[in-house]
Predict the 3D structure of the following.
Amino acid sequence: MLDESLIDAQLQAMANKLRTARFARGLRLIDVAAMTGLSEVHLYRLEQGERAPSLRALLTLAAALDLSPGDLLGAEDGGGVPDRVAPHTGRAVWHGTEKTGSGEMIKGGVRVAYDLARRANPQLIEDADDTVGSPEALLGMAFAGCFSMALASDLDDAGYQPLRIETFAEVRTEAGAGGIALSEVDLRCEATVAGIADQRFLAMAENTKRNCLVSRALAAVPARLDARLVSTVED
């Protein structure tokens, strides 16, 4: 009988290797898509271990990343089993139809009300209190939080001391015949970092924007970054 858990672990190990190889080469999903002819969505699912590649896709990816197929198929240290799995939970309750109903997004004691009117017209959210929002507003908050934390980690790993990083995210949507879709995310970041040159900071911030966890999850949505080094503190 096949051990499906072992197969799943090997699939995840290959996904991790694909992602690591792409990061090491400074490639975005869109870059690999252009090199291989595979769609960004398909590549994202491969990198998340959600889909197994065909033999042709495996050979194509290996060639594009300058690897052998065996490099992708070999087990990781520890057999490809993640060191830990951390579930992050949230829930939402909706009442009524989409057009006339309303709901709440809930995490612990935090409750954010939302409805179609506020989703379609964010200005209504700006004029309301802090307990009213939209899924897109929370997505922007998550992107800003993930980016800020990831940038702090990247700066620290590179030998710089991040003192303060503030990031604002604007998630844009567009409405059409098919409904509401995410069209673009703008990130604006201001940071105080010890001992770093402006150009070095900008390059690191751009790399973090491409590779932080939420950015990878939103790979199909264009994201732009305006990063500014507010002040540099001498070591």
